[in-house]
TrEMBL record:
Cofactor: binding comment: The heme is bound between the two transmembrane subunits.
Protein name per its UniProtKB record: Succinate dehydrogenase cytochrome b556 subunit
Coiled-coil regions, chain positions: none
Transmembrane segments: 33-56, 68-92, 113-135
Amino acid sequence: MSRSPATHAQPRPRPLSPHLTIYRPRITMTTSILHRITGGALYVGTLLVALWLIAAATSKETFDYVNWFFGTLIGRLILFGYTWALMLHMLGGIRHFIWDTGAALEKHTASKLAWATLVGSVVLTVAVWVVGLIVRGGWA
């Protein structure tokens, strides 16, 4: 056993890792978190698309029921959210692809690109729904 005072001293408390409460939220941090969340949401949304396709392959009654659900207010909100998640995740992937080339990595440029991702996802979502409503002939 060592008689050195260093081995008998009380251990110092270890420093804590920086946490979300330490950092001020930045747009790049927010879009990174949203990219991960929308990735998970797309799994659930894709299951709903698969449910719709399975219903179409089984019987007219099953398909009519699933189609009715997607036509309700809750169903449309789910589909709208799925569309937004798809657009945000797609644009986030393009943003990461741009970063992979070594471009737009400066703080100011990365922030502008993150804002463009967020705004672009909303604009694309609304555009998809407006075009869909025009082609379909309204809500009915």
